[in-house]
Amino acid sequence: MLKISCPFCGPRNEVEFVYGGPLKDRRPDDVSQIEDSTWINYLTVPKNPLGPVQERWWHVRGCGCWFTITRDTRSHDIIESEVES
Amino acid sequence: MSKDLFRQPQGGLIDRSQTISFQFNGTTYQGYSGDSLASALIANGVFLTARSFKYHRPRGIVGSGYEEPSSLVELIGDEESGNQPITRVQIRPGLNARSVNCWPSPNFDLMAVNQYVSKLIPAAFYYKTFKWPNWHFFEPSIRRAAGLASAPKNIHHQGHYETRYAHYDILIVGAGPAGLIAALQAARSGARVMLADDGLESGGSLLSQHVKIDGKEAIDWVRETTASLDAMDNVTRLTEATVWAYREHNLLVITERSPATQNVFQRSWRVRAKQVLIATGAIERNLVFANNDRPGVMMASAIQSYVNRYAAKPGKRAVLFANNSSIYAVARDLRASGVELVAIIDSRSNVNDLPEDLQDIQVFRNYVVEQCHGTKRLRAITIKNTETAEKTKIDCDLLGISGGWNPTVHLFSQSRGKVKYDANLATFIPGESVQACQCIGSASAIFTLQKVMQDAVQKTLQALDLDQSNAILLPQLEPEAEYSIQALWHVDLNESLCSKSFIDIQNDVTLSDVHLAMREGFDAVEHVKRYTTAGMGIDQGKTGNLNVIGAIALKKGCAPDEIGTTTFRSPFVPIEFGALTGTREGSVYLPYRHTSITQWNKDHGAEMYEAGARWRRPGYYPRSGESFQETVNRESRVVREGLAVYDGAPLGKFEIKGPDALKLIDMLYTNNFDSLKIGMGRYGLMLNEDGIIFDDGVTFKLAENHYIMSTSTGNADAVNQHMEFFLQTHRPDWQVKITTITTQWANATLCGPKAREMMQALGTDIDLSNEAFPFMAMREGKVGDFKARVCRVSFTGELSFEINVRSRDSLALWETIMEVGMPFNISPVGSESNHVLRVEKGFLSLGHEADGTTTPFDLGLNWIMSKTKTDYIGKKANEIRLAENPSRWQLVGLLPDDPNELIDESAPITPGGRREASEGFVTACVWSVVHNRVIALALLENGQSRMDETIYIRRKDHVVTAKVTAPCFYDAKGQLLRS
Questions:
Q1: Nearest-CB residue to A84 (from B434, B732, B883)
Q2: Is the complex ipTM more than 0.90?
């Protein structure tokens, strides 16, 4: 069970959070202008590195904020956490 | 009496003032308080206690703790349990234990015949033999013959399980000499300490050895130390508590098997510690030679434990066989107990470290034991000189073996710490830590007491970041010789003796089996493990695994560090599931969510369903004498013809406010909400970015920048996540806030042709005329005595008024409705009839036609896909999908040719009804009260262009035909809704 630091609430147990996948670029303001292949890529090819990955978690059983952490997939070490500004 | 022959007249840590009677395999024996089942049986001269897993060879007791590989028992009667190692059961009054895997008894076991066909059943035989005519012919018998105890059927134990979370500055695993001194150091430095030990009492190896600490018996030092620790507020000391898992971020899991708290049967702890000290000691490994599994062959350290701690005598004529110097302490203690020690067999070459006081014992240097003689009991051994090959036979009934010591690195390895091979110590020792933990004492490959205690104190200071000035004083200890070993992975034997040399006693794996695996190409250590099943038993190969690694290394001609270890996995010992769940069982495990009228529903005979997300909603309200179908028909009819009421309280509701509220709603839904007027609602369809239908609901506009969105019951939480995720991560610049109000509002929906009359009868200040209060409008006002928001929404297709009130008013509203509705013959209806009615209308139902693979175009919802909005969530994905134009499964209605046969949901539709890949399936099938026949909805390949075709549905035993129609069977124009 991971110990995740919520930027507002401090370190809490994993059970208070919901995983939200690796970081994706901001959803474009008007997707109709995007190339089909680019959009398919955006939807279906997530970042999947061995090592540090930036990913989102939701503090659903706490303050309700979505924030980003950098976690090493080999060791679960959590390097930093921040909120979307 | 046999008790006297095998029990020393005094000594031991047992309490001779308390005699306990217990049963083993039907015979009653006596033991003392403090005896384990193993020690009590040894003290009663019982040496044949088990039959082996596969070959059913006679077996006895080999170890003294959790490393026991040989004898498993099951407890029967009140304490009924599955497999327990015989060494881990404490005797108590009424104990009734039985050997597993033998019938009728270990002494006479019918399955012993397996030994005579042993050549047919080596490792992995089930991949090669018993194939013709069909493996499944043999499988049931083979499976029945395999396996150990059966699962207990009745749980009689008193009390319940409990789970607990805890945080400590330092968790010390193991209360042997290292753990105890570390705990003392940490506690006196002011840290919050947890000390957890697997044993009945703290002390670890000190409980089984005669050593002097501060001039006293070690046990006195142990008891003084534990008393000091118990007196300190900042120390939690657990006994009979095994730390069995080390997870990420210094989270460890402990099962406390006998908590002092009354009524708590077992307690599981999840401990987050800033620092962890692993003081788990070391485990002795066995030696591999022919018939090394006979009753009477025991681990040398186990003999030491039985002799010192339990004052038992495991035999009369003993020989010791070892490759290391730890055997000498055993020799000393064995002699002092009165057992005749005939000889020591020392396999090491050119080593003479025999202590002064043991000089009179005959020592065979450069000798190994080649084989044991005797079947149900050891009676002699044949030893062999490794240089001259000269052989000698020695009569004995007890053989103590020691292949060396392995630091117990399991938890350290689980923490992802690396282990490395040390050639001097001929074992794997802990290397670099990855998490905030250290191994101390023998777990860190330190084997003299002085150094163990020094190491423990130093590492504790390190862990707490304290300097030397804080170090506590160490007790006085006697000088000890250093541990010395020469690796002996197995005795050099011919092939036929190899097949009788057990390298993993529990799973009956012989040295031949390891060689067989390697011959077949399975020579990586993880493959050898799985091919032979070595190390896969309940003991997880604690006494044998390193010899497997050594045997592979010898065969390959390389060093053990090139072979490596198999992965160490939790749990370290078998643990009970109950302790993991604690009190979270039954209705507490996944609690239901109830509306205020759940009890009212139950009082009125409702069959309660789960409506999604654990919400309890009534399915139907049966009246006496009615069948299920009759109830559903009655309820459906009353909605279509009269007046009904149902509870829609659990549906998700969200308040959306802010200057960008409309922007958000237009992004979430497929249709356009720009033109929505204040006081009106609009049905919205929500997709995920893949264009798949995700949720639906009606959203109302209360004021400029102020909306209320409703969702389905089951998806409310998911929609909440979807919206928050979008706003917080993709549009943090948008000014809009969402508040969950699902449980703030409850409702009662009146539906049926008489709904408006009923509203008038309730009394309201809202103008109910169709002009003032059209379909899809929301009006605020009073209904009866209640402040309410009334919405004209309809899931059933009939005239409906959904009366929304504060949750606390819900029950009173309901009761008022039932009273006022009596002259109208009002009927509460549940989700079953709702389902029938929506099928007649062809309305969307998540989980049926919207199953996570269908798009709005599949369901004919083209009308709701805005053509003017350039972008909304899911739009582009559907455009791409349509452009690719593969054939899709589309929503159609079905009229089965047999108007009376109900078809199961998900029944496949196949071409011609043949057993081929399906071209669709039935998503819903109900008896229609309007048409007095069965109707259905289905997803069918290219269904929209196959109207009036006959299609074939495969049911379990026969094929059914049906005609394809439009997916709406009633009031297609929706005139009744709008009346």
A1: B732
A2: yes
